[in-house]
Specification:
The chain has helices spanning 14-33, 38-47, 64-76, 92-101, 120-125, 152-163, 250-260; strands at 54-58, 84-89, 109-114, 136-139, 170-176, 197-198, 205-217, 220-231, 234-246, 262-269, 273-280. By secondary structure, the protein is α/β, with parallel strands linked by helices. The protein folds into 2 domains: 34-178 and 249-280, 3-Layer(aba) Sandwich (Rossmann fold), CATH 3.40.50.150; 183-246. A 7-stranded mixed sheet has the order 3-2-1-4-5-11-10, sandwiched between helices. A 4-stranded antiparallel sheet has the order 6-7-8-9, with helices on one face. Helix 2 (38-47) crosses helix 3 (64-76) and helix 6 packs across helix 7. It is globular, with a radius of gyration of 19 Å. The chain starts with 13 loop residues before the first helix and ends with a strand. This is Methyltransferase domain-containing protein.
């Protein structure tokens, strides 16, 4: 989907603004927040899955996980001919960047789809070639930690149970460790001031992110940061981005997955996240 160009008051096209946000997301997360070993864990799940696997990367963003799967597969000569990759996200600009920057693996099938993590069944059955079940579902980078509205977690797990293939399907869900076991919040990774980070594709463009404030209310940690986009020394735009992370306990997860009809198989612990693998009960 092409992002329409809608001029704002400063004369900057809205598509440029979306592009800046998507590119900075890529640069910042890869530099400060992501453990690169996570894609290897998901690839190992892929290799152990159904012989003609359908992989659904939920909240794919700019496609980092799918790109990582393709890179790992290329390194080991993995045969993509029977594999279907689906990247789903609720942000058209993120998907647009993913579509432009990631090529489908040779002989493989790659689809980018606009949709919600809370309506997976509808998204899959509404595809041009409807999908009734997936063999590997991925929710990476602690995205579930941002489901802080009451009922969202349960709704997501209910949808996971509906779209996983019975028996062999697996869901790998990452929980960002935004709270210690004591329940006390820790600041999200990343410096208080990044300094100017150069664009990887637009000469002269730089990004700078500055931490503005943090606070904790009940079990939700909130962090606000200001992102400044410059063309050399000229400020093009400034945006304030607020991120919320909720406290997820093992008891909460077990309760929700039991209701949904899912069973936890095992966990993989990384420095900043925990990946929990589930199957249908």
């Amino acid at each position: 989907m092409t992002v329409p160009e809608i001029a704002d008051e400063q004369g900057e096209s809205q598509s440029d603004s979306f592009y800046y946000n998507a590119e900075f997301y890529d640069i910042y997360t890869s530099k400060y927040m992501i453990d690169p070993t996570d894609t290897r864990i998901y690839f190992d799940q892929l290799r152990a899955s159904h012989r003609q696997p359908i992989v659904l990367d939920v909240a794919t963003g700019t496609g980092r996980i799918i790109k990582g799967l393709i890179e790992h597969a290329t390194q080991v000569g993995h045969d993509w001919s029977q594999t279907t990759l689906i990247g789903l996200d609720n942000s058209a600009p993120m998907l647009d960047r993913a579509r432009k920057s990631i090529l489908a693996p040779k002989a493989g099938n790659l689809t980018w789809m606009l949709g919600s993590a809370f309506e997976l069944e509808a998204a899959l059955t509404g595809m041009p070639l409807p999908v009734s079940a997936v063999d590997l579902l991925i929710l990476s980078f602690g995205t579930i930690t941002h489901f802080t509205v009451a009922g969202q977690g349960q709704q997501f797990f209910n949808q996971v149970a509906k779209v996983l293939r019975p028996g062999s399907g697996r869901a790998a869900v990452s929980f960002y460790r935004s709270f210690e076991k004591t329940g006390q919040p820790v600041r999200l990774p990343g410096p208080a001031d990044t300094g100017r980070i150069p664009s990887q594709q637009r000469p002269g463009i730089t990004y700078q992110e500055v931490l503005l404030e943090t606070n904790t209310l009940d079990d939700v940690y909130k962090e606000s940061r200001q992102i400044t986009v410059r063309d050399h020394d000229t400020v093009l735009e400034q945006n304030v981005v607020t991120t919320e992370c909720g406290l997820w306990t093992e008891e909460m997860v077990k309760r929700m997955t039991d209701v949904a009809g899912l069973r936890g198989l095992y966990q993989v612990v990384l420095p900043t996240e925990l990946i929990w693998v589930f199957e249908r009960s």
